Amino acid sequence: MLRNLFCLIFFLNYLTVCLAQVPLDHSKYRDSLNMVLKGTASDSVKARTSFLLAEYWSAKDTIKAKRYLEQGTQLSRNYPYLQGIRYYFEGSFEEERKKSEDIYLKADDALRKYTGRDVYLFRSKIWRKIGLWKQLDDDEKAFTDILVNKAIPFAQKSGDYSLVGDNYLAMGIVFKNKRQLEKSEKYCLKAIETLKDAHAEPGLLAKAYVTNAENYVFLEKYPKAKAMLDSARVLLAPFPESEHFLRYYMIEGMYFTVVRAPVKALKSLDKGIGLAKKLNMTYDEQSLVFQKFYVYYENGDYQRAKEVLHQLLNRKELMSLAVNRLQIYEGLAETNVRLKDMSSAYNWLKQYSVLSDSLNASKLKNDIHELEVKFRNAENEKKISELKAENDRTVLEARNNRLFNWLLGALSLVLLLASFFSLWYYRNNKKLSEQKELNYRQQLKEAEQQRQLEYSSALLEGEEKERRRLARDLHDGLGGLLANVKINLSGLESRAETNVIVEDLGGIINQVDGSLTELRRIAHNMMPMALIKFGLEIALEDLCDFFRNEVTYISFQAFAIQKDIPEQVQVSIYRIIQELLTNAVRHGRASQIVLQCSQNENRFFITMEDNGRGFDKSILKTKKGIGLNNMESRVSFLKGNLEIDSAINEGTTVNIELSIR
C-alpha cells in the first residue's frame, strides 16, 4: 500500500528547480561571468552577464543575487529589449505567485514586439515559469497546455534544442505525476535523445536519466532503471557535490528498496542526506530522511520506521505542506498497526482523516464555487438572449421606417449628386494627370538610384574578383617561384665550399623567406581563404588573430551570426572590419581592442572600442583617407549607418549598422 507513495514528498521540491540549468562546474561558470564584468565589454553585454549572475546566486545568496539584478537593471536602462529580459529574471525573486506571474506576463509582452532566436528562447523560459506556477496550483492541464502551445514551440524557434529537450522532460514529469507511466517513458526517452543530440549540459541530461529511472521503478522494469541510474552517475561523477546527486540518491534508494537491498538503499540515502546538509538544502535533506521510512517499513523494521516519522514531525519545512502531513499521518497509522499499538494507530488515523476531510472540503468548496459560476453564466446568457431578441424586433421596426425615409431622400439626392459629378470629374482628372507626372519623375529617380547601386555593386564585385585573381597569382605563381628559388639556394648552400659563400647564401635564403612571408600576408589580405571556406565568423576570428601580438590584445565576441549571409555581403563586412582593425593598430596604436559583431534577422551590428591615441573628429569634415572612404562606400552600399566617436588620447568607438538582405 505504502509502496505507491514513493517520492510524492519530493514532488514539489523537484518542480521548483526544474528550470535551473547552471552548468555542473559552478565555479568555472561563475568565474567566466565575473571576467566579462571586469573586462571592457559594452553595457548591454555586462547587463546580460549581471542577470545571469543574479540567477546563479538566487539559490545561494539572495542579497548578492538581488545586487546583481539591480546592477543589470542599471546597465540595461538604455536598451528596451534588455528591459524585457530583466522582467524574466525579476520574476524569479517574487515569492507571491500572482505577482510573479504578472511580472512574467509583463516580460512576455515586452518581448512580443521583437523577433529572433534569443527572443524566442526567453519567451519559452518565461512561459515555462508561468506553467510551473500552474503546476504548483495542481493545474496540470494548464501546465501541459502551456508546454505544448507556448514553451516547446518557442524553444524550437530559438534553435536551442537543450531547452526543447528540457521541455520534453517536463511533459514526462507531468505524465509521471499522473501515473501515466508509459506516456511518461515516451517523453523521457524523447528528451534524452534530444538532449544527447544537442550535446546538452551534463546535469540536464543526468536529470532526464534519473527521471526515467524513477519511471522504470514504478513500471517494475528494474534492469532498465539500473541502466538509467548508471548513465546518470557517469555524467555526475566528476562533480560529487552537485545538487543533482540529491535526486540521484533518492531514486537509487527507491531502486534498492524495491529490489530488496535495504543496506544499499540506506547507504545511498545517507549519502544524499550528507550532501544535502553540506549544501544547506534542508527540504531535500528531510525528503531523503522520509525515504528511509519506506526502506525500514518494506524491510519489516517497523520500530525504526516509526522513529523516522517521529523525527520528521517537528521539521517545519516538511510539515508545512499538507500533502506531506497526510503521508506522515498515514505512515504512522500503518506502522502502529504493524506494531500492534492500536490506540496510537487510531489516533494517527483520526488526524489523517480530519486533515484529509479538510482538504477534500476545501476542494469541494472550490468545485461548488466553479459550478455556481457556470450556473450564473448560463443564467446570464439566457437573459442576454431574451434581451437580444427584443432588441432585434425593435431594430427591425426602426430599419423599416428608415428605409421609407431613405427612398424619399434618395430621389432628391440623385439630382444633387449629378450636379456635383461633372465638377468632381474635372478636378479629379486634373489631379490624376499631376499624380502621373509625379510618379513618372519618381520612377526616373528610383531607376537612377538603382543604376548607381548596380554600378557600385559591379565595382565592388570587380574589385573583389581582381583581388582573388591577384591573390591566386601571387600565391600560386610568384609564391611557387620563390619557393623553388629557396629550395635551389638551400641545395647550393649544402654544396658550398667556403664559409663566406655559405653565409652569403644563408642571408639570401633569409631574404627569400621574408619575401615569401610578406607575399603570403599580401595574398591573405587580398582574399582570406577562411572567409571562402569557413564563413564570416571564423574569418573574423582569424583576422583578429592576425592583428594580435605581444602589445595588442583583441577581444572578439560574436552573437547569432548566421551562415546564410550572401558571399558579397560577407566580403564587404570583412573589409569594413579589416579597415577598422588596421586603423586601430597602425594609426591608433591601441593596446586593447574590443570587437563585437551580432545579427538580428536582416540587420548586422558592428561595435569596436579601442584605447588608442584617438583623433579630432572635426578632421573628418575636411580630410579623409582612402581607407575611410572605402569603408563609407561599403556601408552606404549595404544601406547602413556609420558613427565614429573619438577624442585625442581617449581612444575611438565605432558603431555600424548594416542591412544584409
Automatic annotation (TrEMBL):
<feature type="coiled-coil region">
    <location>
        <begin position="361"/>
        <end position="397"/>
    </location>
</feature>
<dbReference type="GO" id="GO:0016301">
    <property type="term" value="F:kinase activity"/>
</dbReference>
<dbReference type="InterPro" id="IPR005467">
    <property type="entry name" value="His_kinase_dom"/>
</dbReference>
<feature type="transmembrane region" description="Helical">
    <location>
        <begin position="403"/>
        <end position="426"/>
    </location>
</feature>
<feature type="signal peptide">
    <location>
        <begin position="1"/>
        <end position="20"/>
    </location>
</feature>
<keyword id="KW-0597">Phosphoprotein</keyword>
<keyword id="KW-0175">Coiled coil</keyword>
<keyword id="KW-0732">Signal</keyword>
<keyword id="KW-0808">Transferase</keyword>
<protein>
    <recommendedName>
        <fullName>histidine kinase</fullName>
        <ecNumber>2.7.13.3</ecNumber>
    </recommendedName>
</protein>
<keyword id="KW-0547">Nucleotide-binding</keyword>
<dbReference type="InterPro" id="IPR011712">
    <property type="entry name" value="Sig_transdc_His_kin_sub3_dim/P"/>
</dbReference>
<keyword id="KW-0067">ATP-binding</keyword>
<dbReference type="InterPro" id="IPR050482">
    <property type="entry name" value="Sensor_HK_TwoCompSys"/>
</dbReference>
<dbReference type="InterPro" id="IPR036890">
    <property type="entry name" value="HATPase_C_sf"/>
</dbReference>
<dbReference type="InterPro" id="IPR003594">
    <property type="entry name" value="HATPase_dom"/>
</dbReference>
<keyword id="KW-0812">Transmembrane</keyword>
<dbReference type="Pfam" id="PF02518">
    <property type="entry name" value="HATPase_c"/>
</dbReference>
<dbReference type="Pfam" id="PF07730">
    <property type="entry name" value="HisKA_3"/>
</dbReference>
<keyword id="KW-0418">Kinase</keyword>
<keyword id="KW-1133">Transmembrane helix</keyword>
<dbReference type="InterPro" id="IPR011990">
    <property type="entry name" value="TPR-like_helical_dom_sf"/>
</dbReference>
<feature type="domain" description="Histidine kinase">
    <location>
        <begin position="469"/>
        <end position="661"/>
    </location>
</feature>
<keyword id="KW-0902">Two-component regulatory system</keyword>
<keyword id="KW-0472">Membrane</keyword>
